[in-house]
Amino acid sequence: MPKNSKVVKRELDDDVTESVKDLLSNEDSAEDAFKTSELIVDGQEEKDTDVEEGSEVEDERPAWNSKLQYILAQVGFSVGLGNVWRFPYLCQKNGGGAYLLPYLILLMVIGIPLFFLELSVGQRIRRGSIGVWNYISPKLGGIGFASCVVCYFVALYYNVIIGWSLFYFSQSFQQPLPWDQCPLVKNASHTFVEPECEQSSATTYYWYREALNISSSISESGGLNWKMTVCLLAAWVMVCLAMIKGIQSSGKIVYFSSLFPYVVLICFLIRAFLLNGSIDGIRHMFTPRLEIMLEPKVWREAATQVFFALGLGFGGVIAFSSYNKRDNNCHFDALNWKEEGSSQGSENDFSKHT
């Protein structure tokens, strides 16, 4: 073999050896890189798992002790002055039983879908009104704050009404009732009925002169009404005691606050049956004036009453449902409240007309 060929063969062998070494070194580096990336991915997964577990711990929220407490809380939130006072007034104003038809239609078309939406959002996100809107979008957080402000203003005048109720309740332990007859005025010569009461009525006089003790004009302050001040303070104390421990305290209060209005309504219903003309009230309720349904004002007031009756937009429905478990059947709850709203409206309407 020629000498040059041996040199060429040695050079080729050296090149092959170096190429094999390069391939082995590249394979080792690729394997090391793969192992490193695998460790990074595993570490990231463990970190994500820890974050998820931590979020679950942070997302722990008190829950209702029973389904009954939740139902009574929602019923107590819905069945309020908007049903007991406002609904009968609107029925009488808008044609009696004719008002029930647009109310039920709007309850099905608008009320129940929105009610179900608030139930499902609160139950899924498990936060209050402010937290829900911030979760959806931080730019929408103002809606949650606005609903809380509205609830605050509603609580202001609702507690005033509770104060009035406490005052009348405290004055009702008398026989005869102080607003049953007009007061008598005595002078040196004879006794006569209070002229202002005689021109109005005993209940009106007692309301303005005894309960409210109003002044003669708006320019006169009239001083502080201590009786109403004490009753208003008692109303706020009752609310604070009911809410001081969240649902742990309010969940027990609802057994009274939600059931007692039904006891009162049943008493009103029985009293209405015993009054003269109760048959006329039934006839008026089930004989609608269909021509009044063509007026847009009737439909507008019916839609407003739907929001009042179900408590939509106030944030209370979202807050109550946020204490439910995520697997709760909120669809069934929404349909159950539909029947509640319709039956409540019919009972109030009959009691008012009779």
TrEMBL record:
Transmembrane segments: 70-88, 100-121, 142-169, 224-244, 253-274, 302-323
Predominant location: membrane
Pfam family, one: SNF
Positions annotated to bind Na(+): 76, 79, 83
The UniProt record lists the keyword Signal: no
Keywords: Membrane, Metal-binding, Sodium, Symport, Transmembrane, Transmembrane helix, Transport
GO cellular component: plasma membrane
Subcellular location: Membrane
Keyword flag Membrane: yes
GO molecular function, one term: proline:sodium symporter activity
GO BP: any one term: L-leucine transport
Topology relative to the membrane: Multi-pass membrane protein
Listed InterPro entries: Na/ntran_symport (IPR000175), SNS_sf (IPR037272)
Organism superkingdom: Eukaryota
Family, similarity comment: Belongs to the sodium:neurotransmitter symporter (SNF) (TC 2.A.22) family.
Protein name as catalogued: Transporter
Record lineage: Eukaryota, Metazoa, Chordata, Craniata, Vertebrata
